[in-house]
Amino acid sequence: MLRTGATTAILAAALFGVSTPLAKLLVHDLSPWMLAGLLYLGSGIGLGLVRLARGLTGSRKRSERGLRGAEWLWLLAAVAAGGVAGPVLLMAGLTATPASTASLLLNLEGVFTALLAWFVFREGVDRRLVAGMVAIVAGAVVLSWGGTVSLDGGWGNGGWGNGGWGPAAVAAACLMWAVDNNLTRKVSLANPADIATIKGLVAGSVNVGIALALGDALPAAPTAATTAAGAMLVGLLGYGVSLVLFVVALRHIGAARTGAYFSTAPFVGGIASLAIFGEPVTLGLAAAAVLMGVGVWLHLTEDHDHEHDHDEMEHDHPHVHDAHHRHHHDGPVTEPHSHRHRHGRLRHRHAHFPDAHHAHRH
Prior knowledge:
By secondary structure, the protein is mainly α. The protein has one domain. The chain is 62% helix and 8% strand. The strands form 3 sheets. The chain has a two-stranded antiparallel sheet. The longest helix is centred in the C-terminal third of the chain and has 40 residues, at 223-262. The protein is globular.
């Protein structure tokens, strides 16, 4: 469970981290609304085509299930927060924030995600997780301070020194994504590709519609097709595939811990930004990277193990036959598979995380 959750969360982080400096290359040619729309349309259309192709050529084995009942309401709320408000705030913030600074500020998404998970959605928390988040917040404070000294002896403006609103917009985007992450966890037992496709199509259509209503448009030909295609490709990988992996991680290790692993994204984005834009390495950026790195390490090395009870429950999700799934099948089965099944009462001890079977209080 931990290996699957950690791996998919870190892969999701890498894809999203690289998308931040790449989006900054496009933000000068497109309005924030239009760019956000194209990024999400790229993810929705691309994943939709992949799903269609797999449906035409794949097997009929039921390894995932669709969205059901109240899950649609949770997903729509998540789309509004993370699919509409979040990317627009990020695109606006990028216009007044160095890409490397914006990339590291995105660590705040993990902090906000954890705080909401702990205090609103009641996920388990321990001192190691709190210490990691304190380190990440300290790094964000250092990063957003005023003038910072460059490692080559020069002076550079920190995020808040450059008008203040750019980093504030990036931080607000992180809060919206934190809300999105916690709401998406409530639907994470459904097919991740379906969730990401719906998010992409709805959020992309809304943002492009707003952009057109405000009088925005694509650049004039011949650059229009290239710019739009570039934005949609970045969206497919950095928003679409990344989101599928992120939902898988939510399913296995919960919102707070997935957000912590996802905090590696800014480091990937920061390195890419330095290479793409040739931005100076400042003492503030280096210190923030160290503090944030310590925070992420504390989360990556967590070991949550105690005796706990499982109440009786019945649900439907992808699973294999393990200590938590010992039900009977008539005939041969393939794993993983998905069907409605019942869990009896169980008390045992093992390392675990707040997945669908471990939502107990601490």
